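Supplementary Methods, section 5.1.

A reviewer requested that the exact input to the structure prediction be made available. We therefore reproduce it here, unchanged from the version used in the analyses.
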Amino acid sequence: MSFPVIRRVVTGHDAEGRAVVASDGPLPTVVEIAAIPGTVFHEVWSTSGTPAAVNNAPDPTTAALMLPPPKQGTRMRFVDIPPDTPEFLSHGSTKMHAAFSEVGDADASTVKADSPHPLMHRTESVDYGVVIDGEMTLILDDAEVALAPGSVVIQRGTNHAWANRSGRPCRMLFVLIDGIYDPAIAAALAATVQPARPALGAAR
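The structure derived from this sequence is encoded token-by-token as follows.
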């Protein structure tokens, strides 16, 4: 199954301040994540300040792929998520450093030996996640939520993963907003961070 190509229309202003179409066509940045085949990032737009600059600046999506939003900014993308496979669920955690490195944030991965899913991760942001087509399961530390088209998740910096148990690809739309943890939450998270365990066979 393949999803439709995403068309993006970007507006702007001419020298007289009249509204014009700056560009109209497919997204210039569409990237399949090599470490998780079938996972495709479709970069739509991003802003890099608050309030966002309203200008005719160049397309911000042609820079290197980054998972989180810019500081004090936002990021909008579609993500195509393939079905989980037994092999991925059994051995996917070994690829997560590579996978998150591809999207510019290796430290976002929180997967451990007892994690409920290989894709567990966390970013210091508020994310709006909308299921566009297909089915998805939101996995948290102590809960799971089944999602259907039209479901919206407000992800407030929590440890989570997206599990596709439907047997077919799912397309989601995400809008990520840079954030900062409440001090009490930041302290609780810092207290739960465990030191990394040495790899099997490593010197102790």
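The CA atoms of residues 68 and 123 lie 7 Å apart. These observations are discussed further in the main text.
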